[in-house]
Design goal:
Blueprint lengths: L1 H13 L14 H4 L7 H12 L2 E6 L2 E6 L2 H9 L14 H4 L8 H11 L5 H22 L9 E2 H18 L12 H18 L1 H4 L1 H7 L1 H34 L8 E2 L7 E2 L3 H6 L2 E2 L2 E2 L2 H14 L2 H15 L2 H15 L9 H6 L1 H13 L6 E5 L3 E3 L2 E3 L3 E5 L1 H4 L43 H18 E4 L7 E4 L1 E4 L4 E6 L3
Parallel strand pairs: 2-11
Antiparallel strand pairs: 1-2, 3-15, 4-5, 6-7, 8-11, 9-10, 12-15, 13-14
Helix pairs in contact: 7-8, 7-20, 8-15, 9-12, 11-12, 12-14, 15-18, 15-20, 16-18
The structure holds protoporphyrin IX containing FE.
GO molecular function, one term: monooxygenase activity
Protein name: Probable cytochrome P450 4d14
Organism: Drosophila lebanonensis (Fruit fly)
Length: 493
């Protein structure tokens, strides 16, 4: 242990990477003990102020390297070698298996190749209808609180809408989370997400073995709910595989779309799952288990993140009336004055200012505020030799507020992303969706969903700056300990 520590420190010293003083056994553990999901960003900022954008840190016996430096982030994120996730991600494994988010090496390469076409433009185009319908339900559900004075925490309502959207697009099933929030699958997703978020910040709960011993009730609850989600996903996969085989057998199968008997009158959409059912690796179809880990990964990665993105965007709009006015004008010009008119791909693509607003919101409040990697071999990154067995944390949240790349970083200025200023944004300083080979595969999906939902809410309501300000908190994804609040006033036009 001593030799390992000396070796690692030698590398960091040579690379000019400094960090807080360590003590025996705990390393910098004592610096972290009093930190919480609420204070973690402040702690990181203090470390950046004290040691610069590249920081060495020891958590117990493991060496860590944190960076908020866009050049270093470029080196890490573009590397084909540094693609393994750090050990914190292991907590997600009992739910997500080694789906795309968690897998590494050959498995990740193969899966990424198969799954990339799943997010093809043609597939996304069909999903726009789901985005529109489910965000209409969200608007409808908010009407009774839209009296201009009630404070509404936007997060829970958005979360149910995002769950409806991801279930229908990833699995092809309507779970009606917004109308029936007690549906068992919805409850399980929420329970598992919140227990995992809690574990993320609590070192004792992090290790499975420790959690089982010290928090047996929570441990049992976690695993019961994971099982219930797996059973649900398994059922859906089996059903859709049978339907696919039947349609092939009776000659009604079409590669992209077919008619759905159950959903009379409407064309049946391909779900992401259907594309996976038709994929092969070396001529072999994926097994149900292979598919389940990918579908579960979409369900996880594809709802909490967009919930965070949509709610923080609505919050910022509520607090910037001029932005709201300009946005509303654009929406009326592109979509018109009929509030019930569905919004298609063409309109979403034309909402350019809205895109700037969302991008700027993701800059200030990135749903994924940190990204982790683990280097398994000594590797040179941006001219610095980083030793094997180091956990790397990319401090996205801070990189996105770096004044060297974003002048007046604390200000909400959507125009930073306008077409005229294209080229001014460094893609490795702006990484809400990560970058490089392991970037977010659902990025286009997410942008369309966010545009659809935000524009729908703005067509129905004026957003008011009511309620407490947000207090960003790292709970797996970015949340706010005070809620993400706004008031709503029905629009009459
Ligand atoms: C605003 C919404 C979203 C944000 C900010 C976001 C952000 C990210 C980030 C930062 C990563 C890299 C994570 C890492 O390296 O640890 C990632 C990966 C991923 N995202 Fe997203 N995401 C969003 C929405 C979605 C959606 C809607 C889906 C699916 C429908 C999705 C599916 C995935 C998957 C499967 C990966 C793993 C990709 C790989 O490792 O090859 N994401 N996302």
């Amino acid at each position: 242990d001593y030799l390992y520590r000396r070796r690692q420190n030698g590398f960091f010293e040579k690379a000019g990477i400094r960090g807080p003083r360590t003590i025996p056994i705990l390393g910098n553990g004592h610096n972290l003990i009093r930190e919480s999901p609420k204070t973690v960003f402040d702690l990181q900022q203090r470390l950046i102020n004290d040691f610069g954008k590249n920081i060495r840190i020891w958590v117990l016996h493991e060496s860590g390297f944190m960076t908020a430096d866009a050049r270093m982030m470029e080196a890490i994120l573009s590397s084909q070698q540094v693609i393994t996730k750090d050990s914190l991600y292991d907590m997600l494994q009992s739910w997500l298996g080694t789906g795309l988010l968690l897998s590494t090496g050959k498995k990740w390469h193969t899966r990424r190749k198969i799954i990339t076409p799943t997010f093809h433009f043609k597939i996304l185009e069909q999903f726009v209808e789901v985005f529109d319908q489910q965000s209409a339900v969200m608007a409808e559900q908010l009407y009774d609180r839209a009296d201009g004075k009630t404070v509404v925490n936007l997060f829970p309502a958005t979360c149910l809408a995002a769950l409806d959207i991801i279930a229908e697009t990833a699995m092809g099933v309507k779970i009606n989370a917004q109308r029936q929030p007690n549906f068992p699958y919805v409850q399980s997703v929420n329970i598992v997400s919140s227990i995992t978020a809690e574990r993320f910040m609590n070192p004792i709960q992090r290790l499975d073995g420790w959690m089982r011993v010290f928090f047996p009730r929570v441990y049992r609850k976690l695993h019961e709910n994971i099982k219930s989600m797996h059973d649900f996903t398994d059922g859906v996969i089996e059903e859709r595989r049978e339907a696919l085989q039947k349609s092939i057998a009776d000659g009604t199968h079409q590669a992209s779309q077919s008619n759905d008997d159950a959903d009379v009158g409407s064309k049946r959409r391909m779900a992401l799952l259907d594309v996976l059912l038709q994929s092969t690796v070396g001529g072999e179809p994926l097994s149900n288990e292979d598919i389940r880990e990918e579908v579960d990964t979409f369900m996880f990665e594809g709802h909490d993140t967009t919930t965070s993105g949509i709610s923080f965007t609505l919050y910022l709009i509520a607090r910037h009336p001029q932005v709201q006015a300009q946005l509303f004008q654009e929406i009326r010009e592109v979509i018109g004055d009929d509030k019930s008119r569905p919004v298609g791909m063409r309109e979403l693509n034309e909402l350019k200012y809205l895109e700037c607003v969302i991008k700027e919101s993701l800059r200030l409040y990135p749903p994924v505020p940190m990204i982790g990697r683990r280097v398994t071999q000594d590797v040179t990154l941006d001219g610095k030799l980083i030793p094997a067995n180091t956990n790397i944390i990319l401090l996205t949240y801070h990189a996105l507020r770096d004044p060297d790349y974003f002048p007046e970083p604390e200000k909400f200025i959507p125009e930073r992303f306008s077409a005229e200023r294209k080229g001014e944004i460094n893609p490795f300083a702006y990484t809400p969706f990560s970058a490089g080979p392991r970037n977010c595969i659902g990025q286009k999906f997410a942008m369309l969903e966010m545009k659809s939902t935000v524009s729908k809410i703005l067509r129905h309501f004026e957003l008011l700056p009511l309620g407490e300000e947000v207090q960003p908190q790292m709970n797996l994804i970015l949340r706010s300990s005070t809620g993400i609040n706004a008031g709503l006033k029905k629009r009459v036009y």
